[in-house]
Amino acid sequence: MTLRHVVPQPILEHYERGETRGTFQAATMFIDLSGFSSLSDELIQYGREGTEVLTDIINRTFDPIIHRVYEHGGFISTFAGDAFTAIFPLDRPDAIAHAIVAGFDIQDIMAAQRHLYTRLGTFSLAVKIGLDVGPVYWGILGRGDAHTYYYRGPAIDGAAHAEAHARAGHIIASARLWPHIQDHVHGRPVSDARDAYRILSHTFTVSPTPVHLSPLTEDQLRPFVPESILHLSIPAEFRNLCSTFISFQEPDTPDALDEFVTHVMALADIYGGYFNKIDFGDKGNVILLLFGAPISHENNVARAAEFLLALRDQERDIPWRAGVTFGTAYAGIVGGRARCEYTAIGDVVNLSSRLMTLADWGHILTDARVHRQVRNGYRFIPLGRRTVKGKRKPVLVYRLVARAAHRAPVTERRPIFGRERELAQLEAWITPLWADPGDGTRPVFVHITGDAGMGKTRLLQEVRARLEDTHPLQWLYCPADDILRQSLNPFAHALKQYFHQSADRSPEENRATFHRILESVIRRIPSGEPGDSVRAELERTASLLAAILDIHWPGSLYEQLEPQLRFENTLLALTNFIKALALARPLILEVDGGHLLDGDSRTLLVRLMGELAGWPVAVLVASRGATDLPGGDAVRWRELHLGPLDEEGVRAIAAAILGRDLTEDAGRFLLE
Q: Which helix (H) or strand (E) holds 384?
């Protein structure tokens, strides 16, 4: 398999020599092939056939243009959707002349393809070119097996600035470049700018030379390219993805920039995102990440949200802002044989960039589709409709604020249909929590299984509502994280809610809140045994509970223990905390997502089975599909499986929705 040239050759050479930053003089060219985003959005409707047509158009357009840049001694530094930057180092004789001639050659190539005829219709593209000359800075960022690179500087900014004054078919030179070429070109100042000149013709006589591309090895590319792109089996496709643009303020030093970008890359990897690129251009310092391409997950939008909230919590030194959108885009290899990259093109990508520029520093803006996808798990502030460049109508915009404090409570008691038997069984298992502690019915461990959509969540909501009507109880919601699956994450979530921890508060405020609530728990523990032992142990292990919430203090037990002893004592702390709550009122732990449990949470369940004999505690675990849970010696799981509703249940739901009973034929149709 031939490896694609997805990293500039100079960057690979610098990396092999151990060089991480430098500068050189160059002529620069910004090439904007306008029309690809709208073309992509138009071809989406044709599915695979649309992908094939768009890929063919990209190959027919990009490949000869990029090849001509390389024939004139230049190279492509950066792609930006349907635009890219070419650099012609001045250490080559006549580099400026080659850049000018390459620009006119590109115009000729595009003029010959003004109308692109395909089986799905005829399409038109246009090219605009900006040119400049001056210093270019390059750098390599990252650590280990995750690196990225950049090219920036006055010459690159100047080329983009010149292109901004161009119309379709125009070549614009900057005021800085003009003195170098004015004796060899015919041109005139751009009417709306004092620092730009339109080049109409030239007298340069330089010619292109054959391109010889050095073969690449996987070892060369691997520090910059993930395996999913290195061995990409499908070059391009239309796919649903979450486009995330981040703009950040300039760090004080190159090392601070490296630290920030390395952190972003590491977090993106943790949350399953693809760090597409870093760019320094007309939109400032920006990073583009994709969630859903090249690797897709079931919850791409939630992963993007979690990534951004984690970055906000952890990165406080460098101000940044973000725009996030969700939709279908063309994702794949863009470019030519001499140089290409994996990226995404389409309106969804453009909109995330626009939202980023609308955002205030420290804010995360999303579109309506992101909001619809994850509104139940996160808090948003609606900002109304905003005017966005490139959109004919104002766009609904939301600000992502935080994770939802807890699952939304059931505010309306709706009837439940077809689950009366399961409800009765679940209540029968749980109600002994309020009976004689010596009858052997406590604790209660129930495993509720069923495919997605079978009603596990609704069943637990109903049983909670019924029990709260008749019994004093405490209910802790422990959802398993389907993204990170970090150690003990379901119980960490429950602790965050119980101790009122919030990312909106300072670490000092969260710590004070933790201690205040813990003192309240300790005061409620009754005197005598087992209360005295529980109280003493809770005070001893308080720092272990706090550490789960990322709260620490000097000289604590947590800091004194070795890692293995920390884990053992953390299990003790959680077990003892559960006992402390249960001494006040019977406690029910709802673990949502047993099929997603991390290994440490499974270990804790076994520990609870062994430690809670006689305690008024119920552990209810809801799992999707067939899931095995760890068992204990003294306590066994009681299994409750939810299958499809029977005929009576289906008819009851339909009648409630329609307001009348179903006919025999209608009922039979629904069942089938």
A: strand 378-386
Of the candidates 48, 99, 105, the one whose C-alpha atom is nearest the C-alpha of residue 234 is 48
Asked if residue 661 is part of any domain, the answer here is no
**Contact indicator for 313, 217 with CB cutoff of 8 Å:** no
- How many domains, in total, are found in the chain? 4
In a domain, 181, yes or no: yes
Same domain for 440 and 554, yes or no, is no
Q: Is residue 663 part of a domain?
A: no
The CATH number covering residue 71 comes to 3.30.70.1230
Reported pTM: 0.77
Distance from C-alpha of 307 to C-alpha of 415, rounded to nearest angstrom: 38
- Span 152-200, pLDDT tens digits: 999 999 999 999 999 999 999 999 999 999 999 999 999 877 789 999 9
Within a 13 Å sphere around the CA of 365, how many CA atoms are in the beta-carbon half?
25
If asked whether residues 89 and 166 sit together in one domain, one would say: yes
HEC readout, 530-580: CHHHHHHHHHHCHHHHHHHCCCCCCCCHHHHCCHHHHHHHHHHHHHHHHHH
Q: Are residues 297 and 181 in the same domain?
A: no
Note whether 645 and 651 are within 8 A (CB).
no
The residue segments making up the domain with residue 353 are 234-404
d(CA 624, CA 630): 16
* Beta bridge mates, 124: 115
CATH of the domain at 609: 3.40.50.300
Sites in the chain below the pLDDT cut of 70? 1, 405-414, 417, 437-441, 632-635, 646-662, 664-672
Q: What is the DSSP letter of 412?
A: S
In whole angstroms, what is the distance from residue 147 CA to residue 149 CA?
7
275 bridge partner residues: 289
Q: Quick check: is 218 in a domain? A: no
